[in-house]
Amino acid sequence: MRFSTVAIASAVVAIASAQAVNPLYPFQANGPCVDGCLTKVGKSMFDKFTNDPSSPDFMASLAFAHERDTPAYKTYMTQTGMCIMNCPMTEQDLYNAQYKDKAAWYANKKAGGTGTSANATSPTATTGAGKPAGTTPSSAVANSASALVGVVAILSTIALL
């Protein structure tokens, strides 16, 4: 009985630590699946992409998800949306619930509010070699009608936020 109590207490502490809010970026962590999707797609478009708020490339990385009038935004959101729809619903819900506030935080920091970095610019997608990346998803994904429907649903939800 004592072992199970210790195991439960350890699990509670681990979950609380994992969900601790970073004072530099005051939002709950996305969860491992969603974070993996954001990072994988981000790094495919910008080799210095990061989710680390203390990095000088953090604001430039956030631009992919929050600079709506760019081709890179559309590509990033489409590709991450297709990946995220395979994540646990709790992680998807958390990402969607925080998206609007994260966009407002990003806009405030970009406009000169205090933050971790002021180097945000409209994103230009690059490959890992620093060359411009394409702005279309892979043909395998593009040919999947069900994936496209899921992406449209996620993007519609985000647009409404």
UniProtKB/TrEMBL annotation:
Name used for this protein in its record: Secreted protein
Species lineage: Eukaryota, Fungi, Fungi incertae sedis, Mucoromycota, Mortierellomycotina
Organism of derivation: Linnemannia elongata AG-77
Keyword annotations: Signal
Biased composition (Low complexity): 116-137
First and last residue of the signal peptide: 1-18
Keyword Signal: yes
Domain of life from the UniProt record: Eukaryota
Region (Disordered): 112-137
